[in-house]
Write a structure and sequence with these properties.
- The chain is built from 14 helices and 25 strands.
- With 417 residues, the chain is an alpha/beta fold.
- Helix 1 runs parallel beside helix 2, helix 5 runs parallel beside helix 6 and helix 8 packs parallel to helix 12.
- The structure holds ligand EPZ.
Length: 417
């Protein structure tokens, strides 16, 4: 692991790369394993900093966790569930899933408000609204959230003002062992939520409607341990596809589920990129000239905000026409714009919109301001002339497994220091 990535642009990416298990499915699913009686086995868990930090948090509460080559076993039988240290919790936003899990399991939880990427305000009011509706008392004091249920949680109807991924997951987790039925209206529909629901169902939970905007959870008394394989990381796959297009390359991304990537594949096609899908993955072949397009981020199945920075880097490389990028999910997810400009990108920001003009990029010293922005810098650097140095690269290692090795395998000229 290193903190700086150095790369030389101008190489066309070619060959095959495999997408790892999805970070944003693994994090809630690892938490959910605490709800089981006995040992759970999870396969295709990516080897990432976020996963490692979650492992440390669970171990600090006495949960038995072992990780070896993608397989994680989790055993909560000897856990004491004392409040995990803030130093660990603040490193990982997904530590807030412990609120739902511990509320369901022990009827109470105390967790410091989480950290994560600085891409916006990121409140958790909808999570807390859900816990309250289920009958828990919620207190916020000096950045610590305390949830406590005096008696067993009781199913309720909860309308989410926004289809929040985190709130949908947290309410599903808490409701899985509540008394009676919980209905989440305007629920998020992300594939990672479906993966979690699939595992909970095998554990014995009764969940209906995941993948639609109304999710129903009928609580059960006990959940049993299971074995589960994490779905492929659609954001990681998408990032390699975008990188392939930006370098006019020809790349096959194995372990990609096309049905999770529809909005990206449609947009790449609109730009003129050739897409060939099969049961194992997707081949992306880029022509010499790409068209500029408009992209608007939305909750799934809309275009994912987690691919917006990478897409913006690609759009600087469109020869024909100006592009418009509108970010509607997070209010501050344009920090990569200044970094792209350091490389010569012609981008104008106007509120939640960015106008991107065809640009000739040249290598520069830039910063990974967050996880996805860091990958946008790699994509821009690969398309640029000369050397790029990406600082604060640790952000990227939170979410991309073996990124140096994978890009090198496709012919990129880069190294970590
Ligand atoms: C998840 O974050 C992902 N993280 C994010 O991935 C992803 O960008 C995001 O979903 C959207 O797809 C994990 O899965 C661990 P949200 P989450 O709750 O759950 C507002 C990455 O790069 N909101 O759907 O935090 C919020 O401010 C990361 O891998 C409230 O107002 O996202 C935001 O504007 C970054 N109140 C919008 O909803 C709430 O209580 C979407 O947030 C909760 C959210």
């Amino acid at each position: 692991m290193g903190d700086k990535l150095f790369l030389t642009g101008g190489k066309r990416l070619q060959g095959e790369v495999r997408a790892s298990g999805a970070k944003n499915a693994a994090l809630p699913i690892i938490n959910a394993a605490i709800l089981a009686k006995g040992e759970t086995q999870l396969d295709d868990i990516p080897d990432l900093r976020d996963v490692f930090h979650l492992q440390q948090i669970l171990e600090s509460m006495g949960v038995g966790v072992a990780y070896d080559q993608g397989t994680m076993t989790i055993n909560p039988e000897k856990a004491h569930f004392a409040e995990p240290p803030y130093e660990l919790v603040r490193k990982l936003r997904a530590s807030y899933y412990l609120l739902g899990v511990l509320l369901a399991r022990n009827g109470e939880a105390r967790i410091a408000l989480p950290g994560g990427c600085a891409i916006g305000n990121r409140p958790i009011d909808l999570h807390l609204k859900g816990f309250k509706a289920l009958g828990a008392d919620v207190h916020l004091d000096h950045g610590v959230v305390e949830v406590k249920a005096k008696r067993k949680l009781k199913g309720a109807k909860i309308y989410l003002d926004y289809p929040s991924v985190g709130a949908t997951v947290n309410i599903m987790l808490a409701a899985s062992r509540a008394e009676g039925q919980t209905v989440i209206e305007n629920a998020a529909r992300e594939p990672e939520i479906i993966d979690l629901a699939n595992m909970l169902t095998v554990m014995g939970a009764r969940i209906k409607g995941v993948g639609t905007d109304i999710v129903k959870v009928e609580g059960v008394d006990q959940l049993s341990s299971t074995q589960h394989r994490i779905i492929p990381d659609r954001i990681e796959s998408g990032s390699y596809m975008i990188a392939a297009a930006a370098t006019r390359g020809d790349v096959y991304v194995r372990n990609s589920l096309c049905e999770h990537l529809k909005s990206l594949l449609a947009k790449l096609k609109e730009m003129g990129v050739k897409i060939e899908e099969d049961i194992e993955g997707v081949r992306v072949t880029a022509p010499n000239s790409l068209k500029g397009i408009d992209v608007k981020t939305l909750p799934h199945p809309g275009f994912p905000t987690d691919l917006q920075p990478q897409m913006m880097a690609l759009l600087t490389q469109a020869e024909e026409g100006t592009s418009l990028v509108i970010e509607t999910v997070f209010e501050n997810r344009f920090m990569h714009v200044d970094e792209l400009k350091r490389m010569g990108a012609d981008i104008k920001l106007d509120g939640r919109g960015a106008i991107v003009k065809p640009s000739r990029l040249s290598g520069a010293k830039v910063w990974a301001t967050d996880l996805r922005a860091g990958v946008a810098m790699i994509i821009a650097g690969l398309a640029a002339e000369g050397e790029t140095q990406i600082n604060d690269f640790f952000h990227v290692e939170r979410g991309y497994e073996k990124i140096e090795e994978k890009f090198k395998g496709l012919g990129a000229d880069l190294h970590l220091e």
